[in-house]
Amino acid sequence: MSASHGPANASEYIVHHLQNNTVGEGFWSFHLDTFIISTLLGVVFLFLFRLAAKNATAGVPGKLQNFVEIMVDFVDTQVKDCFHGKNEVIAPLGLTIFMWVFLMNFMDLIPVDFLPSVMKLFGVNYLRVVPTTDLNLTFGMSLSVFFLVLYYSIKIKGIGGFSWEFATHPFGIKFLPVNLVLKIVEELARPISLSLRLFGNLYAGELIFILIALLPWWIQWPLGTVWAIFHILIITLQAFIFMMLTIVYVSLAHEQVDH
């Protein structure tokens, strides 16, 4: 939901809210707000789930334990359905991805001007509160998945099996150059599509909230409420998709190739 806006110039207002708090210049610039907010949300996730595990009881569970058990059971079910290998890391990885991405997406439901106005009191002029609207973060996460897939592909199949898959799929060894090109494109397309899908959906959602904030105050709240309710589905779905694609990619990395 959006709050009332201050700047008279609409374009300046939009640009201001789409500007990261940046340290450095050019390629070596660092988005401080993305780093701090994503880290804090990661700590919140770890703290709540550790607290629930520490205070878990076999009797009547509290609300936090109920929620954690539902999330763990939900992710565990998805892993059992999609992952056909044997790896104890996958379920915790899926749970971490889903909850962390969901919490970062959820920041989009905070009124547009609220946190930036609060931080402005402390001399912070720029603040983007939704880390997943920063392509650097989504691409960094997708690269982590990419390298994880490469690691398990080599670990499970060996260097020989991994190389053989590149050389022979999908058309056989006689079409080695074509196979190499197609396989490289396929592997590179995964992290690119994974990052752009999450970034694009959350960026569009953030932009709509900003545009709603430019409207007169009496129409902001009705439109903002309707969009926020619909946006809850989007932020949950995008967290789920990122988790599921990660599980599927890692599952494919565990499949043995035919020699």
Q: Would you kindly provide a written description of the structure presented here, covering whatever features stand out?
A:
This protein is mainly alpha-helical and 259 residues long. The protein has one domain. 71% of the residues lie in helices and 2% in strands. It is built from 8 helices and 2 strands, in the order αββααααααα. A two-stranded antiparallel ribbon has the order 1-2. α6 runs parallel beside α8. The longest helix is centred in the C-terminal third of the chain and has 38 residues.
Features:
mainly alpha; single chain; two-stranded antiparallel sheet
Topology:
Blueprint: H1 10-17, E1 22-23, E2 30-31, H2 32-54, H3 63-82, H4 90-106, H5 114-120, H6 135-168, H7 176-213, H8 217-253
Antiparallel strand pairs: 1-2
Summarize the structure.
The protein is mainly α and 259 residues long. Helix content is 71%, strand content 2%. The chain contains eight helices and two strands, in the order αββααααααα.
Q: Uncertain regions: pLDDT < 50 for 5+ in a row?
A: 1-7
Radius of gyration, in angstroms, nearest whole number: 22 Å
Number of contiguous helices: 8
The main sheet orders its strands as 1-2
- The outline comes out as globular
Helix coverage percent: over 70%
Order of helices and strands: HEEHHHHHHH
Number of strands: 2
Mean pLDDT: 89
Structural class: mainly alpha
What portion of the residues fall into strands of 2 or more residues?
Answer: under 5%
- State the major sheet: 2 strands, antiparallel
* Assembly category: single chain
| C-alpha termini separation | 56 Å
Number of domains: 1
